[in-house]
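fyi for ur records
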Amino acid sequence: MSERFDIAVIGCGVVGLAILRRLAMSGLKAVALEKGADILSGASKGNSALLHTGFDAPPKSLELKCMQAGYAEYLDIRQNLNLPLLETSAIIAAWNEEEKAKLEGIEKKARANGVNDVKQLSPTELRIREPQLSRNALGGLLVPGEHVIDPWSAPLAYAHQAIAHGAKIIRKAEVTAARFEKDAWHLTTAQGEVTARIVINAAGLYGDKVEALARTPSFEVKPRKGQFVVFDKPAAKLLRAILLPVPTARTKGVVLFRTIFGNLAIGPTAEETDERENATTDTATLEKLKARAIEMLPALKDVDVTALYAGLRPATQQSEYIIEADEKQNWITAAGIRSTGLTGSLGIAQHVSALYAKHFGKLPKKLPPPKWTPVPNLAEHAIRPYMKGGEIICHCEWVTRGEIEAATKGPLPAGDLAGLKRRTRATMGRCQGFYCAQHVSAAFEKAKHGAS
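which gave:
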């Protein structure tokens, strides 16, 4: 490829796409390289999809700064990009006296982090808010600003907006080698060589491997697996808020939450693993998750489980985000972005943009007007395409043929069936594709290739 770019972002997860969007909108000639067949093929494809306030983040940390900046920007742009928001609030529930004693400290930490609307709840107040909650709960801490969002539509919207501002996204383009000469990086990919003045490593689960192409990594990715259990849609009416445990130093713990797609889910676990590609589930762990969910919300015992899934988080040996610029090597690293990456992505992009301006060149103070690229709504609580008519292909998730056809067109069509699922929800309902997978696949191939 003879074209030369200002920046090349390696990795098309939510963080990479948010960075691509920010820098493309700043007037830089930008390209993103993704090893998978579609965007969100790595860590970003499986998470709990919560928009966090940062109430329990490490005080004065870069993670807190990025989360709160990302939170604010998401609320600022979401209507223009048609990004859903399920306003739920969150409750940290205490299930024993030891946990109850920790609520005061969590409240103080939240206020120190600028989250001042938190409030402790008595057992009576807790039951008024959550009448289906087990009577074993001894109290809680209300965090009104915590919400549920769509984990896939948001990064898709960031990608579309980046493309609208001139960026390119190249898929099936794993970077296998890199050399720096004549003031630019020359990246060897399966799609040919890509040349860019600055490289931004946002490769998530492969962040240390990509880092090693250019310099000795200061970190090692230690993947952490999180398993989830998804209950059928009737469960969603049993809980209003996101139900959080009292966190530990290692993890936020197992969360019971409504999804943007109208289900109720519990997870994630936090399991160390060497696996970077496939996150498997196991029966014993999932049974424990299900039992814990029923223990907290007894009425769940009468609701079926719809789906099981697992995601991988790119943890490192460091607890903090690793975001730094190497001025001598024309390199920016954004690594170690774990469970808060969806919330923090837009804030991380702001931080990376500031690093670029400090080390590699000024950005325009006056930007051109943004080009808005709204995405189709998949949220259960808002208007879906099937409500306006059309042939339904997936009856569990009410996905229409028109949605599948639309997902195969435009500037970034679905690259594979997994990408189609993330764009439409097809085959992700109660039957998990048992009845519709063949029809969905046929509709996808017909729309993509015109086959009969």
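The radius of gyration is 22 Å. thats all i got for now
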